[in-house]
Predict the structure.
Amino acid sequence: MFDVIIQDASLRFGNHCVFEKLNLTLKGGKWTCLLGGSGVGKTSLLRLIADLPAGETDGKILCQDGFPVSNRIAWMAQQDLLLPWFTVLENITLGQRLRRSWADILKRRPILPPEVQDKAMSILEKVGLTEKAHVLPQTLSGGQRQRAALARTLMENRPLVLMDEPFGALDAITRLNLQDLACELLKNRTVLLITHDPLEALRLGHDVYHLRGQPAQLTDAITPPGEIPRSLEDNNLMALQGKLLDRLRHESLLEPLAGEQ
Amino acid sequence: MFDVIIQDASLRFGNHCVFEKLNLTLKGGKWTCLLGGSGVGKTSLLRLIADLPAGETDGKILCQDGFPVSNRIAWMAQQDLLLPWFTVLENITLGQRLRRSWADILKRRPILPPEVQDKAMSILEKVGLTEKAHVLPQTLSGGQRQRAALARTLMENRPLVLMDEPFGALDAITRLNLQDLACELLKNRTVLLITHDPLEALRLGHDVYHLRGQPAQLTDAITPPGEIPRSLEDNNLMALQGKLLDRLRHESLLEPLAGEQ
Amino acid sequence: MKDSIKPFVVLLGLLVLWHTLVIAFDMPGYILPGPVDVAKSMAENASLLWEHTLVTLSEMLLGLLLGVLLGIVLALVLVYFAALRPWLLPPLLITQAIPVFALAPILMLWFGYGLTSKVVMTILVIFFPVVTCCYDGLRHTHQGWLDMAQTMGGNRFAILRNIRWPAALPALASGLRVAVVVAPIGAVVGEWVGSSAGLGYLMLQANARLWVDQMFAALTVLAFCSVSLYYTTDRLLRRFIPWQPETSQE
Amino acid sequence: MKDSIKPFVVLLGLLVLWHTLVIAFDMPGYILPGPVDVAKSMAENASLLWEHTLVTLSEMLLGLLLGVLLGIVLALVLVYFAALRPWLLPPLLITQAIPVFALAPILMLWFGYGLTSKVVMTILVIFFPVVTCCYDGLRHTHQGWLDMAQTMGGNRFAILRNIRWPAALPALASGLRVAVVVAPIGAVVGEWVGSSAGLGYLMLQANARLWVDQMFAALTVLAFCSVSLYYTTDRLLRRFIPWQPETSQE
Amino acid sequence: SGNKQTSNNKQEKELKELTLMLEWFVNPDHGPIIIAQENGYFEDQGLKVDIQEPADPNLPPKLVASEKVDLAVYYQPSLIHGVANGLPLAWAGTLVATPLDGLLVLDDGPIKSLKDMKGKTIGLNIGGIENAILDTLFEPYGFGAKDVKLVNVGWNLSSSLMSGRVDAIMGAYRNFELNQLAIEGRKGRMFYYEENNIPPYDELIFIANSKKNDKDAIRRFLRAIELGTQYIVNNPEKSWKIFRDYSPKKLDNELNRRAWFDTISRFDLRPAAKDAGRYQAFADYLQENGELKAKVNSKDYMLDF
Ligand SMILES: Nc1ncnc2c1ncn2[C@@H]1O[C@H](COP(=O)(O)OP(=O)(O)OP(=O)(O)O)[C@@H](O)[C@H]1O
Ligand SMILES: Nc1ncnc2c1ncn2[C@@H]1O[C@H](COP(=O)(O)OP(=O)(O)OP(=O)(O)O)[C@@H](O)[C@H]1O
Ligand SMILES: [Mg+2]
Ligand SMILES: [Mg+2]
């Protein structure tokens, strides 16, 4: 697995500089977790890595193996972005639909080959949406929508996975289950995960960064020991949580409300 | 402050019965917190109380003082529902705009009297969005949008406040601050708050309920001692968290994935 | 009242309105004949009307089909070849700004007196609402969806097919509703400019001879075609855009 | 290329296209005169054209104003008085399905040969796209916003003013774009049916005398009015709906 | 070669095809054409005539000029306009040899004489010589076209007059609109142009392309028209029935019946007869009255047979 190196990334919206000369390395095959105050620039950083339009950007995204990142990314946005005209099943197989080539169409290959269909149904089962496979997303609850979006991302099967608060709208138990599921399915993928839950970061991250300040800066990585997903009963984890909370609090002492410039 | 009594509430979407004969009393001037698996029916219950259209509903919503609930509710939905054509300031004073009477218009009273404007700006300051007061919500980050929605709800100044995961997209520190803020501003209001964070429920709830099963049922209330917002260092709280997590886990033993039918 | 009777009641109401209008304003028959006279004329000329209706209907439907297709294609070109836009738009606008009668000799010269010229006229009348609405729909796709599609490495056509197109459908629907209602005018105007059959021809004939009854009989048939076309289209559109239900009235 | 020159280049391109069309198809001057002849005629008849343009322009703008207002009001009625809808829609459709020429004698009888009848004609031509688009926009407001407004206890008008209306603006914009482009046709057709001034009248005069140059000069002015009206409207609409930017083309 | 015997001997397939575009829908003004068609005079002359009807009277000259049709029915004043504007058109025979037009008012209206017209409103279907005609009509009374209000009313001439929206109409035919009024129970009064100082002209003529035409076929065509006219003049009732049966659904009505008999005396008995002096006089009249920008020479736009 290749590392992804973000070099001297800068982003500004007009006068407002979100971050400048930011450097970050996503270790190949590892999970990197990103914490940070609201509005500090996490989503923006993710979009920058995914090469999506934003303000005036600068900097380089390099892959260790020399190939460009494009088409090797699965991106899960902060909003669920489910398409209202497709059923849940159709939504989570959107990638397959979009990558259907002219050849596939001309040769009348089925839109969803049986193996893709099976995979989709098995992921839907794992995220607990089997019964919702054939309904439109408008009838889903907030958490169900998020799970559908997660399922879509997991279907993508890309080496680099960028996830923006993928478990934010889920209850504690479902969240733990889906964290385990993600760890299982994204084994050996390079993952960048944004979260607001320090414990989640510590449970899932090989490296845990904290983005803070204005312009935003990254702290040194915290590197919890052991394999992911880690058990929450782990004493090490609790100690690290203390350290992490300290960092978060430190920020809130600097500024009256975290992340706000 | 009046109690709000939900009697024999039922809700079905076609064949799918979300809950049936559900009874719940929101104690006047107190905070009631509601936990529950994803898709179990929390949002639906909130909408039912707010008398918003949903599937086939049944049941009664009574206020202790005999008046109907309508026009005494502030509702914060799971989505932020910010209007894209209004700035943040205009969005959080939407209630004032919508309640402007013909008399106000004919007498050419200002849309925002200075005192409303001041209040709005002070709330914006407290949620940390002062600098964003005059921008359109499209340029906000996810957490900033949620804070704007919270600010709009706080501006409403209604005796009964229904909030659907109001702090879900916020980082830990901002979240604590805003919990404190909400407690302060909603003192003596009857509040129903949906959350996925057991600690948040225990910190803020006078009563903490758990909705589970299919059709969904409410567990007995957990009633943490002391005034809200409670300190997280409180030992009582930790004990109660154990109890609560037990309940949540119990559910996940019943069903492979929480909340899913 | 049952939904299925409503249209008939409306029809009846309109007839009554028409009748009272004729009576109240003391309309002379050569300006606005009463519904009874018109009905009589319709009965008398039933086979004639039917024959000419078929002609107009076929011109109209063919024009609609081609016009809608052309409109959609143009909208796609405007969206996907943004560089062409400033060059394409003005000629497009000009086709609309120029009254067809001025173009008629040219069209007749190129397309003759047959079906073609009427179809071309219908296309000219209807394609603009389709282009405008479809184009407006296509160019305002939610950016998030497009971003997602980009990261998924979708090809342009697939993105159009699966995202942009369905997202534009509600807007296109408005354009189609307008197109369907004005299509008969296109065909009729085409017939005025040169034809030997069709409701427009019949109307001109009748008008030139001051057979106002017969003219209004033809008009009634034309209006009926328009209205039924509208309702059919409306129903189809609702069926095909189920994810965009009407929201509450409060 | 700078955006400010583009329209002129397009104009030039169109003129060249026109010229080559005339040459390529070997168009005789009495069917389609070349741009040079038309320009000559425009120069010769400048003051005449100007005078008549003013007439048509005022008919058109007044018709546009009233037609758009009427369209919006009708759309509001359709949305807010849902019970009226099945009764209102058919008559509305019928006004569109009936070619104005057939209505002309009636309109003339009621409104005379002055400004009024032309304004009414323009209104008839443009209000339908406005109604359709505005109505489609108004009835598909995001349900969540309406729910929120309901809990806030907003009054109907305020909800319309602050939520439904802005939400419908993008759809209405499509309707306006169509309306603005077809408005000149409404005025000109009105003039054909009964008038003593205006570009349509001028065209008829020129046509009867086979002054094809002058007719095309009038047409050119008309097309110019349409196109500039469109661009002005487009710019205004973009300014007033800033929250709905065009999304990327990929 | 165009006599009856030879054409009878030749078979149908050798008929020469001609397209004739009328100036408007078939009506009694086209009597000789229809009779010639129905009685087989065209065939006798070795012609197969395809009759087309337009809805815009100004379309036929353009189609003749661009060689899309061989012959068209048109108006003399408009032909002069066309020639003045450089269209390759030429007179190719006469159908109706007097003006049919006139200034029409209601008999029971306030206008008893042309001098009452001052300041009144005239509805018209623009023909292109209105100003000259009105100036001439009103000249004896000391006013002109500028002193009346002209309103284009398109095809709604009689209804605009009857509904009182205009005081008089121009472009109305004496054989039609007068009868139309009568059928609606009104009486009209017409001020005839030729009785009021306006040089006489032919209302309906045949036109052909001046550069490309088949003189032989036209001559045979006019011969057939001549025969048709003669038949009508000789057999008014019989010819009406033939005309009516050409398309009973469209033609069989009271208005057409009345118009038919009023039109008989207007048909040119010598359709091929060329009167260049009369044409020149009318063209000069138009030019003197400012309706023509350039002088036209009648020799240039009249075919010789
Ligand atoms: N319009 C609808 N039509 C059909 N089913 C619906 C509709 N809205 C909600 N549901 C179903 O009702 C159930 C309860 O939904 P609800 O939104 O109340 O869940 P929730 O408890 O708020 O979940 P979450 O925590 O994920 O937000 C879900 O299973 C959902 O799929
Ligand atoms: N289109 C835009 N125009 C101007 N400013 C923007 C735009 N998009 C984002 N911003 C600003 O950039 C900053 C960073 O936003 P970003 O969405 O990256 O925050 P975030 O770290 O993801 O926050 P959250 O946790 O709340 O999602 C915010 O202050 C936001 O207001
Ligand atoms: Mg974010
Ligand atoms: Mg919910």
Remarks:
- Strands of chain E lie at 16-21, 47-52, 71-74, 89-96, 102-106, 121-124, 149-152, 168-170, 188-192, 204-209.
- Residues 1-7 of chain E have pLDDT under 50 and may be disordered.
- Residues 39 and 228 of chain E are 8 Å apart (CA to CA).
